[in-house]
């Protein structure tokens, strides 16, 4: 509101208040209280404030201190009203009237009275003129009853008596008696007005003015009248005194009640828990507690006169609150606890929902006067800010992840349920992404939890940046995130989003000064294709994520029904495995490990075998992870250790045996005892037992890992690092972990002999690293003579692979080492690439022309074509598999219509075994 308008409104309100009847019939000496009881309004000399029809406004203007003083002053010991004093403050008007009444008497009498009556005439006027001095004397503190009687005698009885005497004697000197009587009656009438309710003074004056007449004409009747008058005066005085006392007692009681109410309300206002307000009938504030005004950033005077609806806004989440308030005000109906936001000064700049926002609950009821006229509203407010803040905090904690600020699991599943419950079928479509960070645990373990937290925050930011307004991101806990993208989407688009997420999250991070690289795996499920309930979708997206992780992480997978059957199969296998363990159906096989230099068998690796009654032989690669998930691995591991040690005890002393230890077994502090027991049970030398541990153990608690290594070393067993190079990429642990051997994973051996492969270089560097650290090396999975030659040339001390022996049962292993332990390499020279057989049209560009041909089979290195006749061996060709997908190669052989082609660059085979070049429609000759 502009200042001019505000002033006009205040002026209007002031006039309104002046015209409006007091809210409650005002009690004597007690001010009406706006809203509730107000400051008492004392009268007389003890009054600290004057009676004020704009009481509310005046009192609001009082500062707290002033209010207090006023309050104290407003509690007089014996508060007197003006009528309680015998003399009015001034009697000058009576003196003037008396003087004027003498004038016609002078005219009628033909002059001034003679002698004493002239003196008493002047005395009567004079005494009335100075009666204010007696009145002041009466009002002085500590004035006793004697002085008050004297004051009545001097200020009332004497002047009125003098007036009566003058008139009575004037009659004897010629003033017509009718005129004297008329003058006396007039003076008495005037005195009745001046003394008003002061009955004693009034009667005293009357009797004093009449007594001289009786004395001039003494008759028994006159005396009887005077005595009667005196008696009546005494009775009236007594009645008057009692009435005054009763009034005073009532007034004091009211004062006390008002003061108590005021005290209670003031202390309540001071606590800040509540405040009071009052409006006039137009809805403009006539009172507001100073505390509430201060919340608005104003002084009470600045708020008084403004409409109540102007100082509040609807609280967020209670959008119709203001309307409700306006409704109650206009309907003049009581309301209770309407939640509103205080219109603070901060609102002018922002939306008012910031930190400074204050919330109130308003309660009010209409007020009517004794004539049932509506006078306005009166009520109280309470501050809800803290309550609301803690509610908001609780709700934030309940719905948002406190670390990243993303929605939490509860909120995400609520959002998902909301979409799935949409009334229109089209709106129920959405895509659900489930993300798991790869290598996050490693960051947490190596850099500490604060660094892990900082990383998660950055991940959340990147995720939100990728998704933007297209969807909603949430953190389910740990390193698991979820994204909901509403509305129907194409798979291509969703795959694009998944790739974007993975690419963005795989960019390096800087955490506490360290460069950190993590990855992400993403599972995607769609509604309604993959589920119409949130449980179904969540279970399926979980399976999709599981598949993405299984596929080597850092990729995305859509849910498919096969995943579901895979999960079911897994559950079935788990059940079967429990039964197999109980029935002792598992077996331990042994694969010889050959010392490369002498080609002698120096030991075995123990490998579990399970011949499933229905499924046949199952790879440990399939059932060991199930055993790990089902908590069966400890039991299986113990069995393997004990069996291997027992078998080893029967073999020559120079033979060692390696047993695989799962990271879960490694995390069991009992492992050294379990190993020691197995050794003790079989009675073998601990140095003959080798434990194969994978790199993943370094992702656990560093101190516990170190302690476990130390404990195992104390037992005396050898330690081998299995599948080296496939997991944890830091070499730092090699410095302190006491390994005796590094096993080079077969993925490095496989393909090492192929053209352009870098595996050989990797193997060479691993062997030199192991040599420098004084460790043996075993090349795993050597299948061909070329591979064997290569790994021996690259310095691997031991070889394990089908080129020598496949895993065999304990009896066969025992037979093998009974002899001279020599191993004979037996296998193909080179690995033949897996060929995919098919029937597909391709175009072949050669010798300047284009021919149609049929592709019969294809591998990374080459292809067999049918349909080309008489082509020259050694010639260059280009094959177009589909539009834009080509490969160059050389014709290696040609027989009849069949041609063998070797590609210049090996083709890329995807993880599902298919070739990228074969995507799309087969190529065809135009026309
Ligand atoms: P691993 O420890 O790396 O074992 C070597 C795997 O390579 C064995 O597979 C073995 O049969 C296979 N292998 C050896 N030479 C060749 C070869 O020339 N060509 C090919 N293609 N494969 C070869 P297996 O027996 O299927 O075991 C798979 C994995 O299961 C093992 O990998 C090991 O991680 C785990 N595993 C096996 N037995 C146990 C066990 O008793 N306890 C635990 N915790 N894990 C075990
Ligand atoms: Mg192994
Ligand atoms: Mg291995």
How many beta strands in the DSSP annotation?
29
* Molecules bound to protein: ligand C2E, magnesium ion
Report the structural category: alpha+beta
- Per DSSP, what share of the residues sits in E-state strands of 2 or more residues? 15-25%
| Uncertain regions spanning at least 5 consecutive residues | 1-78
Biggest beta-sheet profile: 8 strands, mixed, barrel
Q: What's the Cα radius of gyration?
A: 55 Å
What is the straight-line distance between the termini? 83 Å
> Which strand order do you get reading across the main beta sheet?
14-15-17-18-19-20-21-22
Q: Can you count the helices?
A: 30
Shape: elongated
Which range best describes the helical content: under 10%, 10-25%, 25-40%, 40-55%, 55-70% or over 70%? Answer: 40-55%
Rounded mean pLDDT is 84
In words, what does this structure look like?
- The structure is a single chain.
- The chain is α+β, with helices and mostly antiparallel strands and 927 residues long.
- Helix content is 45%, strand content 20%.
- It is built from 30 helices and 29 strands.
- The relative contact order is 0.04.
- It binds ligand C2E and magnesium ion (MG) (2 copies).
- The site of one magnesium ion (MG) has 4 residues, from loops.
- The site of one magnesium ion has 5 residues, from strand 19.
């Amino acid at each position: 509101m502009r200042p001019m308008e505000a002033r006009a409104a205040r002026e209007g309100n002031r006039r309104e208040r002046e015209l409006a009847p007091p809210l409650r019939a005002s009690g004597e000496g007690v001010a009406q209280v706006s809203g509730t009881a107000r400051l008492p309004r004392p009268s007389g000399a003890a009054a600290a404030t004057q009676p004020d029809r704009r009481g509310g406004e005046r009192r609001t203007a009082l500062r707290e201190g002033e209010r207090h003083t006023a309050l104290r002053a407003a509690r007089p010991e014996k508060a007197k009203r003006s009528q309680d004093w015998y003399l009015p403050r001034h009697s000058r008007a009576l003196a003037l009237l008396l003087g004027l009444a003498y004038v016609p008497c002078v005219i009628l009498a033909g002059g001034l009275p003679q002698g004493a009556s002239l003196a008493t005439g002047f005395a009567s006027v004079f005494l009335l003129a100075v009666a204010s001095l007696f009145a002041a004397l009466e009002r002085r503190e500590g004035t006793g009853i004697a002085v008050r009687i004297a004051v009545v005698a001097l200020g009332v009885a004497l002047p009125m008596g003098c007036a009566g005497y003058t008139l009575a004697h004037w009659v004897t000197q010629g003033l017509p008696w009718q005129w004297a009587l008329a003058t006396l009656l007039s003076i008495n009438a005037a005195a009745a007005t001046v003394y008003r309710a002061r009955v004693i003074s009034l009667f005293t004056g009357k009797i004093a003015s009449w007594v001289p007449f009786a004395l001039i004409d003494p008759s028994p009747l006159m005396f009887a009248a005077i005595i009667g008058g005196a008696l009546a005066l005494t009775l009236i005085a007594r009645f008057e005194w009692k009435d005054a006392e009763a009034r005073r007692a009532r007034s004091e009681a009211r004062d006390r009640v008002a003061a108590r109410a005021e005290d209670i309300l003031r202390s309540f206002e001071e606590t800040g828990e509540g405040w009071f307000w009052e409006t006039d009938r137009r809805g403009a504030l006539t009172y507001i507690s100073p505390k509430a005004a201060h919340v608005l950033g104003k002084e009470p005077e600045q708020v008084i006169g403004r409409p109540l609806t102007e100082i509040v806004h609807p609280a967020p989440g209670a959008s119709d609150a203001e309307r409700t308030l306006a409704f109650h005000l206009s309907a003049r109906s009581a309301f209770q606890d309407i939640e509103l936001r205080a219109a603070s000064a901060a609102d002018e700049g922002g939306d008012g929902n910031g930190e400074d926002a204050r919330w109130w609950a308003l309660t009010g009821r209409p007020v009517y006067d004794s004539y049932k006229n509506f006078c306005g509203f009166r009520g109280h407010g309470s501050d809800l800010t803290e309550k609301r803040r803690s509610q908001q905090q609780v709700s934030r904690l309940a719905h948002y992840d406190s670390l990243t600020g993303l929605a939490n699991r509860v909120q995400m599943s609520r959002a998902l349920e909301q979409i799935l419950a949409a009334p229109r079928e089209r709106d129920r479509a959405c895509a659900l992404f489930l993300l798991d960070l790869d290598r996050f645990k490693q960051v947490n373990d190596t850099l500490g939890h604060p660094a892990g937290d900082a990383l998660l925050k950055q991940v959340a930011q990147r995720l939100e940046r990728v998704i933007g307004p297209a969807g909603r991101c949430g953190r389910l806990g740990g390193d698991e995130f979820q994204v909901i993208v509403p509305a129907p989407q194409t798979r291509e688009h969703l795959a694009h989003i998944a790739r974007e997420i993975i690419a963005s999250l795989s960019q390096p991070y800087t955490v506490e000064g360290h460069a950190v690289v993590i990855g992400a795996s993403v599972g995607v499920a769609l509604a309604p294709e993959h589920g119409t309930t949130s449980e179904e979708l969540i279970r399926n997206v979980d399976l999709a994520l599981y598949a993405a992780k299984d596929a080597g992480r850092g990729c995305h997978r859509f849910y498919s029904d096969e995943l579901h059957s895979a999960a079911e199969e897994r559950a079935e296998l788990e059940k079967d495995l429990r039964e197999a363990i109980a029935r002792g159906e598992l077996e331990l096989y042994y694969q010889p490990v050959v010392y490369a230099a002498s080609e002698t068998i120096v030991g075995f690796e123990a490998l579990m075998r399970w011949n499933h009654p229905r499924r046949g032989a199952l790879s440990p690669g399939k059932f060991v992870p199930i055993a790990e998930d089902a908590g069966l691995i400890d039991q299986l591991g113990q069995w393997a250790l004990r069996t291997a040690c027992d078998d080893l005890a029967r073999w020559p002393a120079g033979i060692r045996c390696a047993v695989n230890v799962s990271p879960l077994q490694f995390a069991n502090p009992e492992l050294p005892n379990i190993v020691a027991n197995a050794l003790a049970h079989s009675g073998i030398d601990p140095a003959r037992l080798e434990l194969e541990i994978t790199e993943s153990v370094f992702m656990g608690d560093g101190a516990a890992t170190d302690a476990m290594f130390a404990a195992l070393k104390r037992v005396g067993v050898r330690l081998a690092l299995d599948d080296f190079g496939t997991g944890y990429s830091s070499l730092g642990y090699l410095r302190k972990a006491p390994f005796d051997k590094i096993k080079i994973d077969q993925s490095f051996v496989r393909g090492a002999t192929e053209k352009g492969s870098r595996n050989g270089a990797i193997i060479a560097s691993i062997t030199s690293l192991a040599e420098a650290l004084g460790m043996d090396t075993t090349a795993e999975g050597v299948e061909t003579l070329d591979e064997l030659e290569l790994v021996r040339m690259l310095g691997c001390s031991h070889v394990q692979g089908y080129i020598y022996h496949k895993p065999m049962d304990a009896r066969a292993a025992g037979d093998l080492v009974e002899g001279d332990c020599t191993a004979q390499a037996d296998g193909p020279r080179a690995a033949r690439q897996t060929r995919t057989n098919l029937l597909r049209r391709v175009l072949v560009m050669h010798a300047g022309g284009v021919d149609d041909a049929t592709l019969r089979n294809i591998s990374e290195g080459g292809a067999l074509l049918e349909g080309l006749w008489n082509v020259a061996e050694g010639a260059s060709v280009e094959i177009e598999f589909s539009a834009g997908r080509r490969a160059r190669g050389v014709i290696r052989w040609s027989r009849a219509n069949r041609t063998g082609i070797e590609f210049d660059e090996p083709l890329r085979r995807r993880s599902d075994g298919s070739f990228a070049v074969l995507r799309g429609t087969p190529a065809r000759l135009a026309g």
